[in-house]
Amino acid sequence: MVLATTASVTHTAALARLGFALSDATRVGILLALRAGSAYPSDLADSLDVSRQVMSNQLACLRGCGLVTATPDGRRTQYRLADAHLAPALDELLQVVLHVEPGCCSTDVCTCS
């Protein structure tokens, strides 16, 4: 069976980066929080109950993946989603209901084969 696809190597790489970003609960929390608009790292850290260092590392990862952008605002920096299509895509992903096999996947590692 041949699947018709319009996905390019660039599309595949972009989805892989999104998948990597979604593999960490803190990064997911950041992306979900930024759906509502821009935010400062300290506010994100407080709302997600993580240290400022953890937040800095995760925001750097998301910037590197091209999913968020940083805009200087005086002595602070605001972060926002890099593309307007990302917020509705995350909203759609939140609607997906997965059947989870008991004992298959933990928050740390997937043992499914």
From TrEMBL:
Q: Where is the HTH arsR-type domain?
A: 7-101
Write down the Gene3D superfamilies for this protein, in alphabetical order: Winged helix-like DNA-binding domain superfamily/Winged helix DNA-binding domain (1.10.10.10)
Q: Pfam families recorded for this chain?
A: HTH_5 (PF01022)
* CDD domains recorded: HTH_ARSR (cd00090)
From the Swiss-Prot or TrEMBL record, give the protein name: Metalloregulator ArsR/SmtB family transcription factor
Species for this entry: Microbacterium marmarense
**Taxonomic classification, please?**
Bacteria, Bacillati, Actinomycetota, Actinomycetes, Micrococcales
